[in-house]
Amino acid sequence: MKICVIVFAKNPIPNEVKTRLIPRLSPEQAATLYAAFLTDWCETLSELPDVDLVIAYTPADAQPDLQALIGDDAIYIPQVGINLGERLTSATQWAAVHGYTKILLVGSDSPTLPISYISQALTLLDSRNIVIGPSTDGGYYLIGFSVETLTTTIPYVFEDIAWSTAEVFQQTIGRIHAAEATLGLLPPWYDIDRAEDLVFLHAHISAMRLAGDSVQAVRTEFLLTKLFS
Q: Is the C-alpha dihedral spanning 177, 178, 181, 186 positive or negative?
């Protein structure tokens, strides 16, 4: 069985990433923080045994910069498509063509997402066609497929979705039910998109540290400590 986790990533260029954190952060600070999110998250995912890490990157010339940031152990593929739905479909179909039977797609805006949620998603795909992790903003932080039973349904799930709205999760659930696919749900988690989210993230990491919990987002923690000191 071949398994992959596909991380959707952007080149961390000022004024191109995490723009909703500006002006609370400068464009350069926002780009540096995004790079920390991405690097921390990919480092966490690399701990999964027998799982290929795939970076779906944009823009088209981003591979050298992202490879220098993340490393050579990942597989790099360009994002293809006009909107997010088309890009998600393209990446999922790429994985299916390359023989992956369990495919997870994730972003890079949840650097503290527990690795146990990823393991839970893979376990759910033993008995479900689709698994989804809802985010607290109305979207989702993960969607996954068991391709051996669902190849023809993948494009349908990503069609007619109002991307970047609070309706994404509910609309996607509707598409999944309409496709008569079996669904597994993960616990909700949060994304970091706005300036106020940074305050919450810093407080959350600080609380985890005080409680003696393992903090996986070490680069993110370091930058937030500098920002809030």
A: negative
- Model-wide pTM > 0.85: yes
Across the strands, what pairs with 132? Answer: 143, 185
**Sheet architecture: strand order including 130-134:** 75-78, 52-58, 3-10, 102-106, 140-146, 130-134, 183-185
Q: What spatial distance separates the first Cα and last Cα of the chain, rounded to whole Å?
A: 47
> What would the pLDDT profile of 177-209 be if each residue is shown by its tens digit?
998 899 999 999 999 999 999 999 999 999 988
* Separation CA 133–CA 147 (nearest Å): 18
Kindly list the distances between the CA atom of residue 42 and the CA atoms of 20, 81, 160, in Å, as whole numbers in the listed order: 23, 23, 30
CA 3, CA 103: separation in Å to the nearest integer?
A: 6
Sequence length of the chain is 229
